[in-house]
Specification:
Blueprint (H helix, E strand, L loop, with lengths): L6 H36 L1 H12 E6 L6 E2 L5 E13 L1 H4 L2 H9 L6 H13 L6 E7 L1 H9 L7 E10 L7 H4 L1 E4 L2 H8 L12 E4 L1 H5 L1 H4 L4 E7 L5 E8 L6 E4 L3 H11 L4 E6 L6 E7 L5 H4 L4 H9 L8 H4 L9 H11 L8 E3 L2 E4 L2 E4 L7 E3 L1 H6 L3 H11 L1 H8 L23 H7 L3 H4 L3 H5 L12 H12 L4 E2 L4 E5 L6 E3 L4 E2 L6 H17 L14 E7 L22 E8 L6 E7 L9 H14 L1 E2 L2 H8 L11 E2 L17 E2 L5
Parallel strand pairs: 2-10
Antiparallel strand pairs: 1-8, 2-3, 3-4, 3-5, 3-26, 6-7, 8-9, 10-18, 11-12, 11-23, 13-16, 14-15, 17-20, 18-19, 21-22, 22-23, 24-25
Helix pairs in contact: 11-24, 15-17, 15-18, 15-23
Amino acid sequence: MSEIRDPEIDEARFKARIFAAAAFVLFAFGLIGVRLLHLQVWKHDELMTQAEANRIAVVPIVPNRGLILDRNGVVLANNYSAYTLEITPGKAGPLEPLIDRLAAVVDIQPRDRRRFKRLLEESKSVGSLPIRTKLSDEEVARFTAQRFRFPGVDIRARLFRNYPLGETGSHVLGYIGRINPAEKERIDESESAANYRGTEYIGKLGIEQSYEAELDGITGVEEVETSAAGRPVRRLRSTPATPGNTVVLSIDIRLQALVERLFGERRGALVALDPRNGEVLAFVSKPTFDPNLFVDGIDHESWKDLNESIDKPLLNRALRGTYPPGSTFKPFMAMAALNSGKRAPSTVIFDGGSFVFGGHTFRSHGDHGLGPVDMTRSIVKSSNVYYYTLANEMGVDLMHAQLEPFGFGRRTGIDLEGEVTGLLPSTEWKKRAYRKPEQQKWYAGETISLGIGQGYNNFTMLQLASAMSTIVSGGQRFQPRIAREVLDVVTQERRVLSSDALPPLPLKPEHVELISRALYSVTQEGTSVRSFAGAPYKSGGKTGTAQAVGVKQNEKYNAAKLEEHQRDHSLYVAFAPVEAPSIALAVIVENSGFGSEAAAPITRRVFDYVLAGVLPSEEDIRLTQQGKSGAPVGKPRPVDAVPLVATPVPSVLVAAQAQRPR
């Protein structure tokens, strides 16, 4: 029996379904309308900005880094442009297979892979990272032809720093290197954070670090319209980058190169200043290193060689190396005695070859006595006994009070970062330096060796050179400065960076005259007479020999029984010309014996260059490197006769030389 259906009920059900469907459709369209309203009205500005960002890429324009020149206009640091192959990790997919495929097209060495991996670990940005730098034109062409196979990989032209003279002056110049995480954090917190967009490099050490703000320039911005694939279509507008300024140094790079040659394979430092204004003429630390190694990220082998070398080539000995001054300290002790009234110039001390104090015997070189010695003779003949007795009479605190104003035991304020203070001891210093009460006590016997520049005394060559400048200039003091002026490459205006004059020391002219005359006599009848024989100018100086390791009481020093790194240091402080000093210097040759044998001959060649305008012959350079003193034996050459040897940039790597107007 078939069911009888009620048409009215069926019609009601149908209408209900129609109404529900219509309501759902209306509700759905309502949601769409509300969403459209939300997107088109309420979120219009924000989404428009995002759309423009997808269509327009804002690309930073890295500025040319400023040049560094020496006082005569010789280029010490410049830039060149070369192609780099870069990977954007976020767009590239699995990296190892990609790099393997790239290696079939472009030469990629294991060191390139290691560097890329390190950069990937250190980088917090989503930008591109270089896998290969300095591509040749042939490699660029090969990759370009197969570019479609490598998503997220592109070729860019980047600027690279170049140091044309290689190792010459490397400790002065410093180098640039990749920004490490600590530097990145510091930059992000600074006001100049925006200026480092697009660059991964920053100055490290030397002038590159100290004058980073001048050399870095101002980053520009370029707006580029891009395709859906992210390829640039056309440039919309740009704000050009402002190149970094040119920094001109007071350094004479020819003099710098000469001194570095004179050291040969020996370690040491030399600082030469102009006592009239505090300008640094030479700032040498040996051994040197090639700053070009760091520009593109130093490889593991080179870093290991530099970092683990017993010679410590990365140590700036002129700025951070501290040494006992030895007998070069005696002229300053004499001036301290005169200023404090502890000794008159005519006071005579009998030098019998040794001085006994508290049961200990303090000896002179070779145990030879000099007999009656006044102040002038004590400097000329380098009497130890004279200064043993003087130190005992003065005491450590009076010595500290008299010598600290000369710059010993404190930073000179030179325009390089990383300077150390050295150590000029006092009773207060010892209380701060040690914890145990018995160690904090100052013993009278510790004072004796201070008089001849031993004991706790430790200074840099920069401090010694600055102190010598102060004496020979009659007490006038300057804050040493290496940068001489800054040239604005946009306006061409020159900004002179004069050294800051410090309050002068109240030195009596007759005392300055006595010390200067005694130092001159050192070159005529004293310990450096051989080195300055026949010099066409008058100079003054003082040799010094400083212990690298202690010698047991009553045991004689014997260099032949010691390892090379344990032998005495050779020092010399000097100035010239005597009548009107225009150069004062301090030099140390590590583990090379007496000051007259190694340090004084180097000074003679420096003064010949600065005052007589000549370079030593190759034979004289060879003899100086061997530590043989004496007057020149070869025919000297004019200063300009030997050109500086530049390290060329291979032409195949250069896309455009980034020189700027001077």
